[in-house]
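Apologies for my clumsy wording, but can you show me some protein sequence, whichever is easiest, together with the matching structure tokens, please?
=====
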Amino acid sequence: ECDKYDQMPNSKGKVAPKFHKKNQAALWPLRLHLINAGQDCLQKQDNKGALNFYGTYVESGTAPLFADFDKTKSPDTYIGEVARVAGVIAYQDKNLDLANKYCDVALKDTASYKDALSLKMLMMQQQMKTKEDSVKCLKDFENLYANDKSETIFTNLATLYGNLGMKEKQAQFINERLAQDPNCFTAWAVKGQAEMNDSKWDEAIADLKKANEIKPNALVLTWLGYCNNNKAANTQDANQQKALLTETQAYLEKAKELDPDQKEANWRYLLYNTYYNLYGADDSRTKAMDPNNK
């Protein structure tokens, strides 16, 4: 008789599920078996199965059944990492909509945030095939930056403004960052790069030097060498040319020291060209940098 009254509608006409709380308590911990099943599939190189189990785990965590479940007593500590892995598998399967969906879940977890953000940005950039895609990507980056002022997102957003021809917006964005943090290496580097792309050699050199003073970096040093050499090529003063090339030599040799395998910057040809102009083709330093003598 009591069971009958458990199922009576409330004032809004809703009927409370009879075993709602018990089902929550019983099913919440069982979700862990989905992770185990997903791991088993991965070991068997069954990515489709792994994605199915991991995806079910992620989506079941926000299912209506658990909407009012007290997760503070039994926190879902795996949700971020499982969502990140599901996102990677979906990305490898070229299902970008699903990959983005799982990435967004992983972004809410501090433990998986960094890796999920890298994947998210990679997918956003790969989807920029048309002007419309690029504008949408710009909005996505602006939304990311609104919640996370990291240098990685800043760099991508500032570069995207430049790629879309939004020079004034790019300059404003960079200057706002520098007003907040005058010692922001990334802001000075991006500012110098933008000026370099516009062939503003003096401005680029000045700003890249500021970046390099904050943190020596092989790519910035290579850009400095590139700007110097272009400035040298545009002057008829032999002494000034030599001074600029000598300065470039120091920059590029430092870049070589910091990045011997050229993983960050392609300094080799520029250093070869600098040695060639300073010391000639027969100098041992020139020969050592000759791209044909690798």
